[in-house]
Design goal:
The chain has eleven helices and nine strands. With 281 residues, it is of the alpha/beta class. The strands form two sheets. A seven-stranded parallel beta sheet has the order 3-2-1-4-5-6-8, with helices on both faces. β2, α2 and β3 (49-52) form a beta-alpha-beta unit. α3 runs parallel beside α4 (115-128), α7 (201-212) packs parallel to α11 and α8 runs antiparallel to α9. The longest helix has 15 residues, at 80-94. The model has no long low-confidence stretch (mean pLDDT 96).
Length: 281
Amino acid sequence: MSLAVTGATGHLGGLVIDHLIARGTPADQLVALVRDPAKASGLADRGVQVRTFDYSRPDASALAGVDSLLLVSGTDFGHRIAQHAAVVDAALAAGVGRLVYTSAPHADASINPVAPEHKATEEYLVGSGLPYVILRNGWYHENYLADRDAAARSNQVLTASGEGRVASASRSDLAEAAAVVLAGTETGRTYTLTGDVAWSFDDLAADLATVLDREVTATYVTPEEKTAALTAAGLDAGLIGFAVGVDRAIAAGELGDTTGELSGLIGHPTAPIIDTLRFRG
């Protein structure tokens, strides 16, 4: 069986390949799809097939012989719907047997700013007729490394999330789940992959206090107050809107689900966020 991973030199895609090999998939059955093959020399040295593949101009010939394809959602916000649709079309043209897509929680009905492009991609994939599995990945622990750095400067975590909780998970755990699904044969399934624990921002502040060895408190503000604070700090307006939009989604309870599906797939408890915060310490 030939398994292909897009974005294979990225943070998530590279970990998926690591987990596939660790779980017993022979390297020569793996295809790393990358924009710049020169950056994938380490994968080639391990025996992984490296092929050039660009979301904006996906070449169906790069998918020749692929049984299952992991489409790691792109990072070019505002252009991802067209890019993802083009990859689905290329997979159909190449006769790929199954496509696994990394989406987001509640993508079909979410106020999270990442949701609309995921919703449109899910709809396109389902409507394409291509056998699929959708992985609605919860928020990543790594998304809070910026809060760790901010707390190191200010001794606080600024949030407009109210009493909302976050069932985040490590990138490695989510990559392992993707590897498990990609190597399987299941189709027509949508997973919501979350951490085992839904933490509050008071919990996050306590973890940061442990990691930084100083007092850290969670400071709860309104969306307008957080917007003003981030503006005063000189952040880009687009980034500010994104950050505040995510807080609104957290406040609405969209990132606090604990489904157990992630730990069920990988066969072990999910790693706590403090492990990720320590890793940067």
